[in-house]
């Protein structure tokens, strides 16, 4: 079993705003540099996305894949898994843990485990996961804090 990587960031916004940005998959290409297209394919009865299709173009890594999402009842945890292997990935599991700090800020902890279809030394895979997580959290923080400035 592959190791997972974890990273946290504090965002200057309430947890509800962070969750709203994370769950607004259709708008990911507006703020996530490596995603060309995101399409919600299935939703749960409560309107949350269940199956989401991603088109990724990160220069050397180009892939199309579907992720299946599950949510904690209070949406403090959002988990996903790769629906089926893609051209570049055998497996992807991940989660966002969203914790309201009680002071108007939110701590988001991102956990990611990716098993690529192409061989890669563990050291390089962990470095790639770290780069993906750093970019994802930095871009999420920027989007949430900008959306708060625009609406607040």
What does this structure look like?
The chain is an alpha+beta fold. The chain is 28% helix and 42% strand. The protein contains three helices and seven strands; from the N terminus they run βααββββββα. It has a seven-stranded antiparallel β-sheet with strand order 1-7-6-5-4-3-2, covered by helices on one side. A hairpin with a 5-residue loop joins β4 and β5 (77-82). The model has no long low-confidence stretch (mean pLDDT 89).
> Low-confidence runs (pLDDT<50, min 5 residues)?
none
Broad shape: globular
Q: Radius of gyration over alpha carbons?
A: 15 Å
Element string (H = helix, E = strand): EHHEEEEEEH
Oligomer: single chain
Main β-sheet, in a few words? Answer: 7 strands, antiparallel
Which percent bin holds the helix content?
A: 25-40%
Class computed from helices, strands and strand pairing: alpha+beta
Short description:
The protein has helices spanning 15-23, 28-31, 122-151; strands spanning 5-11, 35-43, 49-57, 62-71, 77-82, 89-100, 106-116.
Which helices and strands appear, and what pairs or packs with what?
Elements: E1 5-11, H1 15-23, H2 28-31, E2 35-43, E3 49-57, E4 62-71, E5 77-82, E6 89-100, E7 106-116, H3 122-151
Antiparallel strand pairs: 1-7, 2-3, 3-4, 4-5, 5-6, 6-7
Question: What are the main properties of this structure?
Answer:
3 helices; alpha+beta; single chain; 152 residues
């Amino acid at each position: 079993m592959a190791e997972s990587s974890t990273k946290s960031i504090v965002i200057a916004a309430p947890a509800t705003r962070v969750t709203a940005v994370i769950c607004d998959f259709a708008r990911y290409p507006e703020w996530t540099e490596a995603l060309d297209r995101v399409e919600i394919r299935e939703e749960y009865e409560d309107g949350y996305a269940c199956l989401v299709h991603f088109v990724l173009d990160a220069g050397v890594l180009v892939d199309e894949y579907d992720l299946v999402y599950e949510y904690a009842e209070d949406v403090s945890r959002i988990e996903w898994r790769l629906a089926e292997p893609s051209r570049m990935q055998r497996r992807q599991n991940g989660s966002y843990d969203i914790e309201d700090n009680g002071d108007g800020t939110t701590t988001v902890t991102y956990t990611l485990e990716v098993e690529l279809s192409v061989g890669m030394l563990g050291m390089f895979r962990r470095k790639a996961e770290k780069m993906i997580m750093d970019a994802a959290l930095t871009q999420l923080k920027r989007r949430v804090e900008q959306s708060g400035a625009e609406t607040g």
